[in-house]
Amino acid sequence: MWTVFLSGEIHSDWREQIIDGADALSLEIEFESAVLDHDASDAAGDHLGEEDKNFWRDHKSAKVNAIRIRNLIERADLVVVRFGDQYKQWNAAFDAGYCAAIGKPYITLHDESLIHPLKEVDAGSLAWCQSPAQVVEILKHSLTG
Length: 145
Description:
Elements: E1 2-8, H1 14-24, E2 29-33, H2 38-42, H3 54-75, E3 78-82, H4 90-102, E4 106-109, H5 119-124, E5 127-129, H6 132-144
Parallel strand pairs: 1-2, 1-3, 3-4, 4-5
C-alpha cells in the first residue's frame, strides 16, 4: 500500500480524477491531502486568539496547517503537486521545495503555460505531467512495473 499526498490547487476536480483513475486500476494507494475547505484552512489558528491584522491570523493558521502537511508529506511515498492557472499556489511551491529538501519524490502537474515560472520546481521533480491521467499512468507503472 502506497501513500500519495496530493498538494496544490483546490478549485478543480484533479484530485478526484487521480483517485478515480487509481481505483479503476485497483491500485493499492491511500491518498492524503491538505485541508481542502479554504475557509477552514484560513481559520486553522483562530482558536489561538483573535488578531487585529490579517498577517498574524494567516501566520498562525499557516503554522497550524503545516503540522498536518509536513507530517503527511514525510509519511508519503510520493507527492503530486498541482499548479492551476487561475490562482498562484505559493503553498504548493513550498510543498515542492519541502519535498526537494527532504529527498521526497514528487511529480508536478500543470499546463504548458506555467513551464517558465515553475522551471526550478519542475527541475526538482521526477516527472512533469499535464493531466491527471498521466499521473495515474506513473502511479500504475510505479506500483506494478
